[in-house]
Amino acid sequence: MSNREALRQRLRAGLTTLKLDLDDSTIERLLDYVDLLLRWNAAYNLTAVRDPGEMVTRHLLDSLAVLPHVTGNTLADLGTGAGIPGIPLVLARPELTVHLVDSNGKKARFLREAVRHLHLSSTRVDECRVEAVNGEFDCITARAFATLADMLAWGGHLLAPAGRWLALKGRFPQDELDKLPVGFVIDAVHRLDVPGLDAERHLVIIRRSDRVDAGRMGS
User: The domain that contains 106 carries what CATH number?
Assistant: First the structure.
């Protein structure tokens, strides 16, 4: 069995466990992303994960586990690094308009090449700090690059009034939940079971509290 075929089988099995139905062309593009990441990682050290099979688990499946919770048409992936989870999500949902945000120059160079190589016409790379991003987004993803309080302090202005913030965390972050800034509330916390990953994963879904307040005032 070729290495590509082994990765394909691993990805398909994981998608089945996650109950995600992606077509063959999407699966191949996800594997193309892994190939590109492997090549660039040798020189640019974009991720500590070196094994392609582990990339399927830790980068593709770990990202796609949140796909059922992605809503709306626009998404900003803050502190995206090598494009995780933003690139796997836009490959699975190509109708999304996605901003990949990272201030690291070498990671931004890789992201621009990934956008070109994978023909992600609805995706743009913002090489800047989170605070400098403009606009509002239906959905924001952030993969544990800071505490919830810091994430919202830096990027809370980007969340649309009815949008949802998807914060990907490891262990259940009770400490951080207790310190959520004013103006935001926890909508839900989901434990994610990522196939092949022997580690805890939790998804914290946050929304603006003023959406509820406005609804009550109008009732």
Answer: 3.40.50.150
